[in-house]
User: Fold these one by one.
Assistant:
Number 1:
Amino acid sequence: MILSFHPCFDTDVQVILGDRLLDSVDLQLIRDAKAIILPQTCPQEMYNACSASSAAVFPSYEMRFKYPGKMGQSILFKNFGFLHPGTLRWRSVVEFKKAYPALKEFPHDLPFFIKDDKSHEADGVFLIKDMPSMSRAFDYLGCRERSGLPGFVSQEFIPSEGNVLRAVIIGKRVITYWKRPNRPGQVITTISRNAMIDHDWRPDLLEKGKKQALSLSEKTGIDLAAVDFVFSIADKYPAPFFLEINYYFGRRGLGGSEDYYHLLYQAVREWLGQIGLDPESVSLI
């Protein structure tokens, strides 16, 4: 029996949880299943229950929960030997200030980044050039701590000229494109801040990013995520630095939601075939 918790994929049994928790019926279905298709918004409780069963599971979120947030991902990159900007992890603003009490020295050369652990789409990302920018970062992080969301990283600045390469892993396939600044001097580049999507610029670097994303997938089992890379553009042969892994990601660079779900549907079908089950047993709804 194939079990789907994904609202877009119907199969032998489809369960749409919404906001409710798993109940005894759901848990029995998980125990009986040969394969389980998870939603992209899969909570940890659901993943733990499914991964502890004998069923094959897609996508794999083991790394997502083992190495959470930017703090966890910096450990993942280190543990698996992937090139990434020099990164330090901080549990609180107080911990940082104890390490640098006079704030006359910094953990990285200026400029450098401070990034809130759990924020997305460049929220909570600060380019630290001087004490005023540091103070703005600390004010934001202090509010996050008081709301129960502590933790941040400080990170080496890679002179990418604002260009970020995104590699989207969907099953065995990797699709790459650039997020490029729409104005001179823009350093923090995201689609939500009107970055330009470019599928053609620097094809040599697109290929480098694709190879590294495939390596990440092979070494960690990650099979649905968007990986961001930066390059020191002025170098003659720039190397890809892993920046972060996004398990929730926008779809404009993939052609929109409809195109994305067709790509994901194909990945699910290929996965079912690889584990010896019938790809025709699942439909996109």
Note: The helical segments are 24-32, 44-51, 62-66, 69-79, 93-99, 131-146, 203-220, 257-274.
Number 2:
Amino acid sequence: MQPRAKRLAAAVAFALAVSWYAKPGAADGPDTLRIAVIPTEVSAAAYYAADLGYFKDAGIDAEITSLANGNAATAAVVAGAADIGFSNTFSLSIAHDKGLPVNILTGSDLHRTANPSQGFLAVLKASPIRAGKDFNGKTVAVPGLGTATYFALRNWIDKNGGDSSTVKYVEVPIPTIADAIITGRVDAGSLDAANMYAARSKTALREVGNTYDSIGPKWVAGAWFATPAWIGAHPGLARKFIAVYERVAVWANAHPDDVVKLYAKHSAFTVDDLRASPRAQLEPSTELDLIQPVIDTALRYGAIKQAFSAGELLNPVVKPVAGTKAP
């Protein structure tokens, strides 16, 4: 079996393991939309939209399932187990390079140096690790290999005097990375804001730096995506989803206190933990200049075989290719 066929077969096997199905409905009823999310605050916007009735307003019956990371969400969408998924732009760039059918519907958030929500590189407060060179030979936890967190971490180590090729990277679910550091199973880990600012983390951990800054001061970190075939068959539903996300983004950015309550409902965090951390800004975007740095970094680390334009990730059926000027 050829490598690409093996990847597709693995994705199909994953889809069968998930065991989702589309609910039959009346022809004049709401459109069923199966959405794959991951355990991060940005992706939880799908839950907010459901709780606030935004999906219902748009005529959508949303079935939301949380998966381990962006790679799992990509596999589910490619295999047809989900219609729309959430992933990081690195995973989507790698999938595109491998010939997997993925198209970005809309970016979900931007990494901004002034207000980061991901890439907090943490160690124990008593750890001697302080610079890139100190990570040589160490074991570091990331939520997934081949994800934005993984490549941003490698890039940060290399730019700060270390050799990322000497580091051992282990996959640990995002909510348990802090525990892995505290219990000594790993030397360090990359956390999101909610986990970095949680009470236990604040007591035991120290931030070494923000790895996402090594990619650039501003870039598209996450995105909602689907396959070109699904978009072509459901362009109206795809546009509805984009409109719902744009609506919930406006609401969430304007109501941080309410977001804390909803995120606590759909996660293991307490309201107090979340109030102590900065809120992620939801910023729908398909600006090419803000996606291209991801592709360039993936190429630098051999994650993709050849360079390509960020425009190849977008689907003009749903949204025209954006200009190159960021807002």
Note: Strands lie at 31-37, 60-66, 84-88, 103-112, 120-124, 139-142, 168-171, 188-191, 205-210, 218-226.
Number 3:
Amino acid sequence: MKHIYKPADILLPKAVPTENWCVVACDQYTSEPEYWERAEKAVGNFPSTYHMVYPECCLETTNAEEYANGINLTMERYLNDGVFREVKNKYILVERTLADGKVRRGVMMALDLEQYRYEKGSKSPIRATEGTVLERIPPRVKIRRNAPLELPHIMILIDDKQRSVIEPIVKSCLTLEYEGKLMQNSGSIRGFSLNETAAEKLEAALDALPVSDNLLFAVGDGNHSLATAKACYEEVKQSLAPEEAANHPARWALAEVVNLYDDSLQFEPIHRVVFQTNPAKLMQEFRSYYEISDTPCEGHKITCVIGTETKTVWVKNPPSNLEVGTLQKFLDAQLTGGKVDYIHGEEVVERLCRDDSEAIGFLLPKMEKSSLFETVAIDGALPRKTFSMGHACDKRFYMECRKIKVNYHRL
């Protein structure tokens, strides 16, 4: 599997505390704009990744083109003002201490977008685990198309039950590059560059991993960001000679690679809330669409939240292997009005439905992570938003950046 990944030239802030520099993935807290308001206050007057990402909660309330232009201007200003220092041709081991005290370890590396596909049925070595919502790509393309930098919240999984790749990395082969707290009680983060010996051992262990169906890297988080990088690279590629495309920085995407079996990595369900709808009517349509039982039976268990009340029903003869697929099929087929949002945490669903008489929530069970690679290899991509790796506050925070334009050297 060589040439699918490589070390990267990584940009890090010179003198900005992580608590001001880092913000959580842009697709989190989409129904909680107050979170992002607090993030803006926490940033203060420091340079920050907050000014280089487009929180999805702002997509419907801001002009996408203007927002993207502002982001790109900020990136250029940070480059020209000497905000960054560059760690060249390195893998970086990331140690993320989560809010509950557990530590998640991953390695930052560059992945070859020529080896990534997100279409259902793909046999590429880098593959989406969930369905890709094509409508979510264009707003992101508007930012990346002219951006001099990328800063990823992409998390890639490897199926390493023997813990042979990341876990053996020893501290004596590492150099501390950054450390500090993360805002809004989200834990802390440290990053270490690997020396040549550690890098060679990492590559040998990755190349020795057994794979099924040619699948080495499965996208755990940030698939739409990776799909955006792919779309932008395909645009750039059209104007390049083959030898230019082979070495163009846009061909590669920076991502954090994490072992599926990392002890801190917990799969959490992603629930659904439908806003701007008639909850009673939608529930009636749900009962008409499927054969529903109000008492336990064989089938898929789904809990519905309306106002302050919750009710669990069972779908008989479900059409999908997973509850999320059964529910999503109904929503895709029958929902003609209203807006669906994807929510992390039962308590958030309950609060949103309690405070909004035109909202209905659907709570889903979690998926066992040990079945992920086998399921993707056999069945292809899962229904979109099937699972989340931890709570929203545990998601990857933006820290590292990388130049994706040729000949941008003012640093």
Note: Residues 52 and 71 are 5 Å apart (CA to CA).
Number 4:
Amino acid sequence: MKASPRQADGALGELVGFGRLLRGRGLPVGTGRILAFCRALAALAPFDRDGLYWAGRLTMVSHKGQLPAYEAAFKAYFPAERDDALAVIAGWLQNVELPPELEVTVEEGLAEDGWRAGADGEGGEQEALVGVLASGAEVLRAKSFEELNEAERAQANAIIRSLALHLPVRHSRRWRPSPHGRRFDQRRTLRASLRTQGEPFQRAWRARRRKPRPLVLVLDVSGSMSAYSRALMQFGFAAIRAGRRVEVFCFGTRLTRVTRALRRSEPDDALREVAAGVVDWDGGTRIGASVKELLDRYGQHAFLRGSVVVLCSDGLERGDPAVLGAQMARLGRLAHQLVWVNPLKGSPRYEPLARGMAAALPHVDRFLPGHNLQSLEALSKVVGR
């Protein structure tokens, strides 16, 4: 899909204008850094305000002494009221490939400051900057959530929220017109033949409608999952944005439905509301009792029957493993597919020897890791199939 010239000029003008503001505040920003900034945003698209901030910070800032100037410039140039500019930039970068003449356009935009190509020594650093950026993103995707620092954790959260998660689909009982359906549509064929003196020159066909299958996320927020629970909650926020047929629950020693809280438009507000409503965060783990409560309270609801259920937990059950095995068997009979995501599975030495995990595995359709960005990206693909 090709962006209009007006949209491209407006988006690129916003990015070059931000680079000019940073140069005016003493940061050595030239063509190379702005090109790296554009490519970083293109790799993140679609992105939110946090993604824009971190892409600029990674590509425009050379050392920590420049951080105060960068943050002040970012707040001044991209205030909360300027969501229109953010939408223009995101829409342009999501729909086009960056043109080869981008470097010339950036140089022309910066020339108004009297900037000359190579004046700040960045002409030969462009490829290195892009390579470092790609390498850093790849390292972050492969790094375990428990090893991230605060800055990396914020960047990872922004990437998780931008995951393109698609809901699974199923065939409904209703039929719809289709050019290549499996059932002959006699009524539409006869109706069309009235235009050709009763000769059925064109045959009509029908196929079953396809509609989204419900998705249910059950997330462990106990103390043993503290390094991963916030990232999994960000995944739940991304799943909620995929459609209305998504339900999210979290549990430690009791089950809490957090779907309504995660439907907030701002992720920080949603997570604060979840934290206020979940009283057993970072507490003990009773997986079997929580699954039983889910089935007893919501087993007759339409969102659970025939759904794809994703249960995220390390399997360290403190209750009776026999209860967990029996409840997983119930859940497996009710759901279309049962996926267990265990962050511990990311270790090559991991074996599911814990009593809770051993009791649950016979009833699980897919057993996946969930310790880093790569594993969550793989999970989103499995869910969408």
Note: The two ends are 25 Å apart (CA to CA).
